[in-house]
Amino acid sequence: MTFTREPLQIVEIVQPLCSRVFGTSPCLATGEKCFNTDVTCKYLAALDLTDEVVMRFVAPAANRWINDALAFQPSSAIPALMAVDTAPTVLNVGAGNDDISPLGLRAVATVAIKDFPYNDVGFDPYLSSRSYDPMERGSFWTKWLVRNPYHTGYVMRIYDGYFGDALTDMIKREYSIEKIDASRSSVQITAKDILRKVTDTQVTCPPLSPGSLSAALTAVATTFDVAGAEVADYAASGWVRINSEIMSYTSVSLVGSNVSFSGVTRGRLNTTASAHNQFDKVQRVVAYEAEPFTDIIYDLLTTWGGIPTGYITKADWDAEFAEWRAIYNFTAYLSDPVEVQKLVGELCQQGLANVWWDERVQKILLRAQRPNYSAATLTDAANIVADSAVIEENPKDRASQVYVYYGLRNPTLNVTDKFSFANGEAIIDVDKERQYGESKVKEIFCRWVNTSVIASTLGNAYLQRFKDVRKSITFNLDAKDIASVWTGDVLLISHFLDVDFYGATKSGAWLITSAETVSQGGVYRFVAEDNESAGLLWEWVADGNTDPIAETGCWVDADGTDGAGNLMPYRWI
């Protein structure tokens, strides 16, 4: 006799709730009681949305008690879940695909939940004081939506497990609610991963500054006042842009109704001091000066993109930088509003790294484009579901010539104009132009790069990766094989579709760009990109070190070998 476990799926929504008690100090509200939500608050000075109520939904058939004290009890959830549909994160490797966001495609979940009459138990803190019967007024979702109209950004989680599992033992995927559409009988909730806060909102760094000159400014003045702004709109000391001039300043203060700048140095960063008119805009400039590119991405996402820091394990990012990109300290002055996702995409491309959301650990991960020391090996005989593999060609991004423009002349210039840059590197593969019978040019405009070493490395790495037509493979795996296989992982695949010149099956390197559930607890679908020509990769090796074991990864000597004469795909620069 064969016993199978019964799958269980749970949808969880976290609703912020005010911690105050209506009419009790510090809440001084009077009259009809609120529902401890933002929009129903009658004394906003005391509003404190630090509490929460967690709503859990299961399918009606799952709403039963389990005789196991350690297991999650489906009987405690609302039996209204109708359907769950998910689409995976799609990785944009090195921000190289111009057709999608530099940060790839968001993981999306669409959930359908029934609507029903409800007695407000658990959702109305003052239910006993009401003069009406909530079962006779509205429905669960009509009341919830009007009491929580600011639900965009609320956390939604999907748990996949089995009856008898504890909630902590289930696979958990976390999303940020984008919208809720309501019909007479149900609602449909659309949620995306947390990176939607920068990819879907067009948030910029810096934001557009509201201030303008309160009076005309001469070409030599070292103080000026700004109207229509607050002190908090500018850094305590730093940089501003007026028209095509960059200025630095040492202090800013409020003088009357104006913001006053002092200690001003004119014509900075290769710009020219000039006179400016009253009401000319005074734009804040955000400066990153010789900072690790990983620190810049972190700051852009958390400070300017509004992503909570808990979604990033910064220590892991720091370790990745130290091991693989230790000289990638970038300098740039952002003198007008640029979308955060665009800036992060530039940094990924110019830093030869990937950033993506991993729903398994609910973290934003960063990884240099590099090998995987413990790559899993999959074969069509032992792992890949029969007849599921398809290899496709992607010729659009192929390049035989790469032009890298770097050394931006000054921060006010157009970064997509080659004449805005002082330097350029041209890397050309003549053999590929002969083989394909045509030239294909890729131009990379580098706001962040100021050295020929990094510009040359970038150009060579890009050409190495895209000199041939790119290939992708789609395949399915059973649940038993996914422990070390997910988005962002490099793995080896041996499949009859991928052979050498002599027809022998190869064991090729592939980078997984998306992973999704086909059937809960059963089949998973993956898309991977050819990683055989992943670019020039290297590891930083301590000076004078001749012991590969002492290094975290693979050691190479000055000739690019492992010390025993074997050429390795790493190098110093």
Notes on the protein architecture:
By secondary structure, the protein is mainly beta. Helices cover 12% and strands 33% of the residues. Helix 3 packs antiparallel against helix 4 and helix 3 packs antiparallel against helix 5 (340-350).
In short:
The protein has 573 residues and is mainly β. It is 12% helix and 33% strand.
Write the layout of secondary structure elements.
Layout: E1 7-17, E2 51-58, E3 78-79, E4 81-87, E5 108-114, H1 140-147, E6 155-162, E7 171-182, E8 186-192, H2 196-199, E9 204-205, E10 212-213, E11 224-227, E12 238-242, E13 245-249, E14 251-255, E15 258-262, E16 265-268, E17 283-292, H3 293-304, H4 314-324, E18 329-334, E19 338-339, H5 340-350, E20 353-358, E21 363-368, E22 377-379, E23 390-394, E24 401-408, E25 421-428, H6 430-436, E26 441-445, H7 452-466, E27 470-478, E28 490-494, E29 508-519, E30 523-530
Parallel strand pairs: 2-3, 22-28, 24-26
Antiparallel strand pairs: 1-2, 1-6, 4-5, 5-8, 6-7, 7-8, 9-19, 10-11, 11-15, 12-13, 12-17, 13-16, 14-15, 17-18, 20-21, 23-27, 24-25, 27-30, 28-29, 29-30
Helix pairs in contact: 3-4, 3-5
Please tag this protein with its features.
573 residues, mainly beta, 8-stranded mixed β-sheet, 6-stranded mixed β-sheet, 12% helix, 33% strand, disordered C terminus
The chain-level mean pLDDT equals: 90
User: Judging from the principal axes of the Cα atoms, what is the shape?
Assistant: flat
Q: Indicate the percent of residues in helices.
A: 10-25%
Provide the low-confidence segments as ranges: 535-543, 545-556, 569-573
CA(first)-CA(last) distance: 62 Å
Proportion of beta-strand residues:
25-35%
Widest sheet, order of strands: 3-2-1-6-7-8-5-4
Radius of gyration: 28 Å
> Based on helices, strands and strand pairing, what is the structural class?
mainly beta
Number of helices: 7
Strand elements, count: 30
Q: Describe the sheet with the most strands.
A: 8 strands, mixed
